[in-house]
Design brief:
Helix 5 packs antiparallel against helix 9, helix 8 packs antiparallel against helix 9 and helix 8 runs parallel beside helix 11. A seven-stranded antiparallel sheet has the order 21-22-23-24-27-25-26. The chain has 16 helices and 27 strands. Strand 8 and strand 9 form a beta hairpin. With 683 residues, it is α+β, with helices and mostly antiparallel strands.
Length: 683
């Protein structure tokens, strides 16, 4: 589409009741990011109240009409996806505006391939709109969906704002609030305290109320990349949007950070669990139990069920789930592991579920049978669920689609790591409707993390790992070896799973960074990485975690069997070099003594040393020739496991441990130094 054009959704798809909006952009430097937002407007073009403004801290509507699905990795970076159930949109909402904003001076003109796509519930792309005239704008309205009689239409808008999110919000009836963080937090947290306490007291297991619900208050709208859990509030704060209307607080429930002291006599006493695991002995038992446990919790906890199915095109509605259903197929019936049905306005959305646990691979012929059954019976989707993590959003098995069939069935993949991530986000950070739901999710998470469940996510680097590692050590591995490409894919799966785990634990977006050129397809990119692996003997990835001061890197050197974790920290603009060096060393009070600190300069190499040596003499970080300091590089080194699995000596466990140690002992404490740096220098 071109800017200003509009089209009726009914002309593009037979099912125009729900759409998936995708917003994407790319950056060769890997530092392009923005926050997406959705606004519901009335006939006057204004929000009805602050609850009509959806963003990262208020990601979903209670009625299911809007849900921000977060970022999905793509071959060129990531894509923000938004689920819109148009059948659930209140009748007094006339327009749905889709926008995005960048942080503190970062401009959309610095990004490439700025694009919006609109897909139906079957993930069939209906339209695309590219913004190719971005310059100094810090916020953009990408497009809008609006009513015309009984139908919905889409308009490609492409309107930019130099005034950022605040300027965009003002246009749609959102007031500017000049209050400080302390004032806003006091107003929100003090409300409904007695009600939350009463709710928590009736819980089956101890729970505590979550922080106040998503609102457009000043602290809530601070870009996540600038926020840390214990950061001190700034003395003064730029104006941030706040919607007109009565301020309301809707309490949600999360689990407490610290559990109450156990009443058990000793550690040998194990608490009774809703979903027992120790008796599981066979793979079939694990698959049946895991499917039943997951689907039952999805049906009982609406926030969780909606979170997992919205990305697959399911509407918001009443959900029921089933296991061991017999469906006719030729001479012998087939029994999918599970069935999900969602009813909305008298219409049914149905998905078949095929589950694997304990690292067992999906079988293409089995999935093909379910795709054929779904097509014949008018079902919408087949969902595969296993320990493997899908890359680039593609299914893990290849199936044939009969183009003669009018009814479309979509094949989706979900990993157990993604299931655990969503459960963590809800019970630890975002909250659910009541204490019983929080307890159910906690029990589900305990089940998934138990060693006997078989639902531990990606756990095997594959059969190519040992031959490739040995070939690199012996210098016999040559470019073009397909086994190297398999190792690269396994490495990317591992990094993606680590991001899911970190994101769930921290409550922040955590994503791998892809630095690619325009038009690069995933296959050729992995082949190029595999060729470098053959010559250099190293696997390397970059991770971006909101609330941290920079992209940090994990490198596995297969020749030296060493893992290196590192992060580059920019220095404050206009600051004194010695002051920056002292401030950095003070912020690393909790860091290990063997942390390597290197000064980054414009040309050549700067001074370096261990933290143990630099603590008494921070001035040793200053270049003797007076060269300008651009930043500091912090690195930790660790031995690398050799086996392909997750045993104590395994490669996967060593990578997990290296990243956890580096984040916990170094990165998590850098906010005191980062508070003085320019946001413009951060990813």
């Amino acid at each position: 589409m071109i800017k200003g054009a509009n089209v009726s959704l009914a002309e593009l798809s037979e099912d125009s009741g729900g759409v998936i909006v995708g917003l994407s952009w790319s950056s060769a430097e890997g530092d392009g990011d923005a926050d997406v937002s959705v606004l519901l407007l009335d006939d006057g073009g204004k929000v009805r109240s602050e609850s009509d403004f959806y963003f990262y801290n208020h990601p979903a509507a209670v009625d299911g009409s809007v849900q921000l699905l977060g970022k999905t990795p793509t071959d060129s970076g990531s894509e923000d996806r938004i689920s819109l159930d148009l059948t659930a949109v209140p009748p007094d909402v006339s327009r749905i505006v889709v926008a995005a904003s960048r942080y503190e001076g970062a401009r959309f003109g610095d990004l490439h391939d700025i694009r919006l796509t609109l897909a139906d519930r079957a993930n069939e792309v209906l339209l695309g709109f590219s913004i190719d005239d971005a310059g100094v704008e810090t916020a953009f309205v990408f497009g809008e969906l609006y009513r015309r009689g009984e139908e919905w239409k889409f308009r490609a808008v492409g309107q930019g704002y130099e005034s950022g999110l605040a300027g965009l919000a003002t246009d749609f009836g959102i007031e500017i609030d000049d209050g400080t963080d302390e004032e806003i937090d006091g107003e929100v947290d003090g409300a409904g305290e007695d009600e939350a306490t009463e709710t928590a007291a009736s819980a089956p297991t101890p729970v505590a109320p979550a922080p106040a619900p998503p609102t457009a208050a000043a602290e809530d709208l601070t870009p996540r990349a600038e926020r840390t859990a214990d950061a001190e509030p700034a003395p003064q704060k730029a104006p941030t949007p706040r919607a007109r209307g009565t301020r309301t607080v809707k309490k949600k429930v999360t689990l407490p950070k610290v559990a109450k002291k156990s009443l058990a006599e000793n550690d040998s006493w194990k608490p009774a669990r809703l979903f027992p695991v120790p008796t599981l002995r066979s793979d079939k038992e694990r698959e049946l139990r895991a499917t039943s446990v997951l689907l039952s919790v999805m049906a009982q906890v609406p926030e969780f069920g909606r979170r997992l199915t919205a990305a697959f095109g399911a509407p918001a509605g009443r959900m029921e789930t089933f296991t061991e259903v017999s469906l006719p197929h030729g001479d012998s019936p087939r029994r999918p592991d599970g069935v999900i049905r969602v009813e909305r306005a008298g219409k049914l959305w149905t998905a078949l579920v095929e589950t694997k646990t304990n690292g067992n691979p999906l079988k293409a012929e089995q999935v093909q049978d379910y795709m054929d059954i779904a097509a014949r019976r008018g079902y919408e989707a087949v969902i595969t669920l296993s320990n493997d993590v899908a890359l680039d959003g593609r299914p893990l098995v290849d199936v044939k689609i009969d183009g003669r069939r009018k009814h479309k069935v979509t094949l989706w993949h979900l990993s157990w790591a993604e299931v655990a991530h969503q459960a963590q986000m809800l019970i630890r950070h975002e909250g659910v409707g009541n204490a019983a739901h929080a307890w159910l999710l906690h029990e589900l998470l305990h089940y998934l993390q138990h060693e006997n469940s078989g639902c531990h996510g990606f756990q095997n680097m594959g059969p190519a790992w040992v031959p490739v590692r040995n070939g690199i050590e012996a210098e016999t591995l040559t470019q073009g070896d397909p086994r190297a490409v398999q190792v690269v894919e396994s490495w990317e799966q591992l990094i993606r799973q680590i991001c899911l785990r970190l994101g769930g634990e921290l409550g922040q977006k955590a994503l791998p960074v892809q630095r690619v050129s325009r038009g690069t397809d995933p296959t050729s990119r992995r082949v190029a990485i595999a060729d470098r692996l053959c010559t250099e003997g190293r696997l390397s990835s970059e991770l971006r975690i909101d609330g941290t001061p920079g992209v940090f890197t994990i490198t596995a050197d297969l020749r030296t069997s060493k893992l290196r974790t590192s992060v580059d920290i920019p220095v404050p603009e206009g600051g004194y070099p010695l002051t920056s060096a002292k401030r950095l060393i003070r912020s690393l009070t909790e860091a290990p003594a063997d942390l390597h600190v290197e000064t980054l300069v414009d040309t050549g190499n700067g001074p370096r040393g261990t933290l143990e040596r630099l603590r008494p003499e921070p001035g040793d970080l200053l270049p003797r020739d007076g060269a300008a300091i651009t930043g500091f590089r912090l690195s930790l080194f660790k031995g690398m496991g050799g086996t392909r699995g997750t045993t104590e000596s395994g490669f996967i466990r060593s990578v997990d441990g290296a990243i956890d140690r580096f984040y916990g002992s170094v990165v998590a404490h850098l906010h005191t130094f980062d508070r003085h740096t320019s946001r413009r220098s951060r990813p």
